[in-house]
Amino acid sequence: MSGTEGKGAHPRHLDRIHHVAVEVPDVALAVAWYLSRFRCGLAYQDDTWALLTFENASLALVTRGDHPPHFGVEGPAIGDEKAARLHRDGVRYVYIEDPGGNVVEIVEENPEKAPLRP
């Protein structure tokens, strides 16, 4: 082994990658392309973003300036984070940046709402 492989204990419960968001110039065109080429479903679509569901994760198609390219992690409660916002479905989320400047969206787990899983 090299690097840090196999070092340290793994937590009993790992957080889950909920989605990856990529920028597209035209949401409708991108949705049509993905649906015609892959076995995936369409969970939501408007002019600025769409959410495609796959077996193991979701893919968000976002427009530049409306939503940042990012990946979403379904994690524990966000708490009193002042930057927390609500999605259209009432689920709380917050954008943060990792040390390299990559945007990460923390999507709050909420067992009382419909599951976030695709």
What does the model show?
This protein is mainly beta and 118 residues long. The protein has a single domain (16-108), classed as 2,3-Dihydroxybiphenyl 1,2-Dioxygenase, domain 1 (Roll). It is built from 1 helix and 8 strands. It has one helix at 27-37; strands at 16-23, 41-45, 49-53, 58-62, 70-75, 85-86, 92-97, 103-108. Strands 2-3-4-1-5-8-7-6 form an 8-stranded mixed sheet. A hairpin with a 5-residue loop joins strand 6 and strand 7. The longest helix has 11 residues, at 27-37. Mean pLDDT is 83; it is low at 113-118.
Attribute tags:
2,3-Dihydroxybiphenyl 1,2-Dioxygenase, domain 1; 118 residues; mainly beta; single chain; 36% strand
What is the count of distinct domains? Answer: 1
Give the proportion of residues in helices.
under 10%
Order of helices and strands: EHEEEEEEE
Low-confidence stretches: 113-118
Write down the oligomeric state: single chain
Give the CATH topology: 2,3-Dihydroxybiphenyl 1,2-Dioxygenase, domain 1
Question: What order do the helices and strands come in, and which of them pair?
Answer:
Blueprint: E1 16-23, H1 27-37, E2 41-45, E3 49-53, E4 58-62, E5 70-75, E6 85-86, E7 92-97, E8 103-108
Parallel strand pairs: 1-4, 5-8
Antiparallel strand pairs: 1-5, 2-3, 3-4, 6-7, 7-8
